Amino acid sequence: MLKEAIATRYITPLREGGSLPGLVEADDLGTYVMKFTGAGQGRKTLVAEVVCGELARRLGFRVPRLVTLDLDPVLGLGEPEQQVQDLLRASGGTNLGMDFLSGALGFDPLAFQVDAAEAGRIVWFDALINNVDRSWRNPNLLMWHGELWLIDHGATMIWHHNWPGAEASAARPYDAADHALARFAPDLASAAADLAPRVTEDLLAEVTAEIPDAWLADEPGFDTPDDLRRAYTRPLLARAAVIHDRIQGIK
Ligand SMILES: Nc1ncnc2c1ncn2[C@@H]1O[C@H](COP(=O)(O)OP(=O)(O)OP(=O)(O)O)[C@@H](O)[C@H]1O
Ligand SMILES: [Mg+2]
Q: What sequence ranges are listed for the domain HipA-like kinase (predicted)?
């Protein structure tokens, strides 16, 4: 399970984020980027953040540490902005926090260099999780202390929005033409050779165990949170073996 903390102060909204993530302080004295269960995109966005973030970390990528943040909606009462108040009011209970990388710069593909090996690993990983949100328009990559960090895995694994069609959906190719790192000659063959064998059933079981039960309850077609955890495992396991040959748009 992810480490648990309690949100103690809402500092400010992060203006760039479509889902209105906020900066908060917690009882462990940490400062976190908080993503809310009450946001329009709902709790599946948060599940995707946990599954893909924790998988990425275990495959050796740099990802901000994730925690659960318990929110008392009372925290929102003093907020001057109606939108923020509504969001906090709708998000009582378990939410997601990620370490705030203070001073990080947004990655700009025209301003920074990435080597072919690292570009290959990131593009391969995004193909695995079907990330549609790492384009040059919106890279969702941060430069922090001279290194590249991955953030924002909310718009991934599209198949979890329609479980009956998941197998067919996960068999589809990945179009990397607009990927933020497409211009760095990503070495996909080396990335696949190294990473694909490491995406095992055991690793995925470890990763899905990190998803809070509260975000898995009452999913139509699943009796228990663990059934749903297994459903998250299957498409990723199947895709890891074949996705290298199904990445389109990279020369
Ligand atoms: N851990 C972090 N440390 C520092 N800054 C962050 C962190 N996470 C997010 N940010 C900043 O906040 C912005 C919004 O975060 P994020 O992309 O995760 O939110 P989002 O609502 O999913 O965004 P969108 O869907 O618009 O891409 C990022 O572009 C980045 O500038
Ligand atoms: Mg983003």
A: 12-240
Q: Is 33 in the pocket of ligand 1 (CB under 6 A)?
A: yes
User: The pTM is what?
Assistant: 0.97
SS (H, E, C) the chain: CCEEEEEEEEEEECCCCCCCCEEEEECCCCEEEEECCCCCCCHHHHHHHHHHHHHHHHCCCCCCCEEEEEECHHHHCCCCCHHHHHHHHCCCEEEEEEECCCCCEECCCCCCCCCHHHHHHHHHHHHHHCCCCCECCCCCEEEECCEEEECCCCCCCHHHHCHHHHHHHHCCCEECCCECCHHHCCCHHHHHHHHHHHCCHHHHHHHHCCCCHHHCCCCCCCCCHHHHHHHHHHHHHHHHHHHHHHEECCC
| Residue 117 sits in the same domain as residue 138 | yes
For ligand 1, whether the C-beta of 45 sits within 6 Å is no
- Tell whether 87 and 140 lie within a shared domain: no
CA of 82 to the centre of ligand 1 (A): 21
Domain boundary residue among 99, 128, 149?
A: 99
How do residues 43-58 score in pLDDT, each as one tens digit? 999 999 999 999 999 9
54 lines ligand 1 (CB under 6 A): no
Assess whether 78 and 121 both reside in one domain.
no
